[in-house]
Design brief:
- With 391 residues, the chain is α+β, with helices and mostly antiparallel strands.
- It is built from eleven helices and eight strands.
- Strands 3, 4, 5, 6, 7 and 8 form a six-stranded mixed beta sheet that branches. A two-stranded antiparallel ribbon has the order 1-2.
- Strand 5 and strand 6 form a beta hairpin.
- Helix 2 crosses helix 3, helix 5 packs antiparallel against helix 9 and helix 9 runs antiparallel to helix 11.
- The protein is elongated and about 125 Å long.
Amino acid sequence: MKILEISREELYQQVWTTPMSKLAKKYGLSDQGLAKKCRKHQIPRPPVGYWVKLANGKNVAKPPLPEVTDPILQTVIFYQESQQKRAPNHALPPEQYPQIKKAEAFSVPAKISSYHPLVKASIEAFKERTTDRYGFLIPHYLKNTHLDIKATQGTIKRAHYLMHILITLFNSVSWSVKRDDSGYSKHGRTYVVIGDEEIEFQIKEKIRQIPHVLTEAEKKNRYAYPQKYDYLSTGKLSLQLSNTYIEGVRKAWVDDAKSPLTDKLPEIIQNLILAAEIIKQKRLEREEQYRKWEEERKHAEQLRKLQKIDIDRLNLLFEASERWNKIQKAQQFLRLVTQSIDKGEITPTDEIHAWIEWVTQKLSSLALPVILHETVNKHAKLGQMHFVYES
């Protein structure tokens, strides 16, 4: 898998010069997938009918690319699978993967005297249960101990047998198995944990769908809304990897009389190893990209703080300058008053003398050095907020 990065401006130009259906294929996405990228990065897209109008020579308005402040949105990232596909049965060297050797030597018991604790608890959850519309047994929601199994009454025993075999095999190669109880919709989801990666798997029976034939009672009841299909058990179980969408990695194995699942354990182990390696690689790439995004976000935040400090310092300067201008005007006014008194244009009173004395004292306390000292102190305090960006 490779990561392709382009600028937001570049994708904007491409979207308005190439139809979305063609452009999406270039990046290995569906039309909706590319549209989702555009929405995330606030890139306007051509409206319905745009290309038809353009082909007929009509002028169609093209909205400008709006500005965004979040630096993460400036770069559009596409994850592309390698064009070189792995063969579905690509063989891993057993000498490098002891798990495969153990799977090849794993002894499958014909009968099980004591089930694994996870399987034992799941068996209890499925005991004496009703079925859904497909005929699958519904586990007891209060017990909440079932594994991810979708089977009918006729295959539930075999499904638990296969679960026991798989969990025992996984444990033998130092892989653990866990259930997800984080929410009602996730109850029973089952994962094999390989290193730091979790791969979801389930045992599921294949169900055959046939058109529903109306019963005599349904024919007579015109207000009835009978189901459209009936669902029949096939008795065929399969192991499915639920959350693995990786080219070249097999995701399902059928269990039947001619080819039981227990004969495919080495292949299953091999595909799980491949899946875990690719999932790990993708996870590390995502984490690295998130790290870069976080660095860019922090850098942008630091720049915003530095810009705010500069603005605040400029405002301090303007404030000090304005104060000094007012003081100079007040001093000029005081000189005019004293000159008018000296010329006899104003008759001084005790109140005027007191006022002149007060103004002279106040203006001396607001001399230029005082204003400068206050401004410099405030300027320095703002500078203490400064922090150097470390790349």
